[in-house]
Structure formats: structure tokens, C-alpha cells
Known about the structure:
Blueprint: H1 3-13, H2 19-22, H3 47-56, E1 60-65, H4 71-74, E2 80-87, H5 90-103, E3 107-111, H6 118-121, E4 124-130, H7 139-149, E5 150-159, H8 168-175, H9 185-194, E6 200-205, H10 214-220, H11 228-235, E7 244-250
Parallel strand pairs: 1-2, 1-4, 2-3, 4-5
Antiparallel strand pairs: 5-7, 6-7
Amino acid sequence: MGSAAARWSELQSGRGIPAEILAQAPVSPWGHNPADFTVPDVPEDTPSRAAGLALLGASGTVSDIGCGGGDAAFALVGPLTHATGVDSQQDMLELFEEGADLRGVPVRTVLGPWPDVAGEAGTADVVVSHHVLHNVVDLPPFLDALTAAAGRGVVVEMLSEHPMAWLDPLWVRFHDLQRPEPATVDDAVAVLRELGVEPEVTRWERARRAPSSPEWVTRRLCLPPDREPEVAAALGTIPPRPRTAATLVWRP
């Protein structure tokens, strides 16, 4: 493991929840609600979408890794001829299939973590993966599998730093837990360079998202529902979630 990969692994491991806090959680803080991953009818005109369309050209196939509802893949409807959705949650894959039906896009789905299911997912002209890297601890195998699966290129979208870093003051407030510094886009780029990949990097501002609900934050903090009023009050004291994102593009 190179020094950049080791740094990424260390930073990501440090974002885990200590066992004694996790044991007190009334419900799991992990997992995602499919209702939060519905795809808009009109895709946002982002650098990630532009990069995917440029790689597809007149037509082509797409694999969406960590697909959720299919925001990354369905932004490419038009030249998109077929999409493969890969996700660790079955309910997300069902949402992906529903979105494909609405858009008339042929799809198939693969349940399981990447890169474990890379062989089952196969290859595509373009591989997209949006807001997934910050869920990965061992980054080199993940990135290598993205590259190996892509015929024309890979498009990765991520926030400038770990998406949960904005909650760090609340971990201190409610658990007296100091969080380590978050991994950043620059850390991910450094790992790619260790793998011999020089990505094109475009930094940009995402559209403003709705604020996270106190219920969602309470669950993320492993607190019981009766603490929601305290969490709601605390949310008013910290800055909003970051909007700066980056699109990383590379070709095999």
C-alpha cells in the first residue's frame, strides 16, 4: 500500500463510530432511505453529467456503481442504451429499476458491495460512481475495479471532504468524541496517482440541498428519538453542509 492509500485508509477508518457508542444506538445509523434518492425528471446540468455525455458520444452503455436511485446513470438518458446498477441495498436497486422503467431504459441490477461483485457486473462503455468514495476504506481495489470495468472512461463525483464531517461538532457536543480530519478530494487524487492514473479534476458548487432533518441527524448520532429537540437546537449552531464538489474523470 502506498503512502497516499495508507493515509486514505487511516482517515476513513477514523470516521467509524466507536463500538461503545454504536452499542447504545436504538436503531442502526447506517443505511439509506430510498425516499431520499428519488431522481429528478430533469437532470442537473453538472460537470459530471457533461463528462459522462462526452464519453458516451452518440451512444453507449453505463455501469452505475453505488447507484442509489440512478441519479448518475439517468442523467445520461439520450445516448444511454443500457444501464447496470450496482448497490448493496436491494430497495435501492428496486428504485433504480422503477426509474429505468419510467425512462424506457433497459437495465439490469447487481446486489452487493463493489468491488466484490465487479465480475458479476461486467463491463460498460462508461462507469459512473457518485458520492461513494467516502464510504470506502480500502480505496485502491475499488478504483482499480472501476477502471477495469470501463471501456471508454470513468466519472466519479464526490464532495470536497467527507460528507459527514459537518456533523463533527455534534459528535463533540453529544458524545464528547473528537473526530479526525476528513479525507478530501486531494487525498483521492493522490491515491489515483499512486495507481498510475492522472484524473481530470473539475471543482464546482452543487445546487443547495434541503437541510438534514433532526430525525436523520439524531439517528446518525446514535441517539434515541427523544433527543431530537436537542439535536434540532444544536443544528442551528453549526454551518450548513458543504456544497463544493469535484468531478474526477479518467480513461483506461
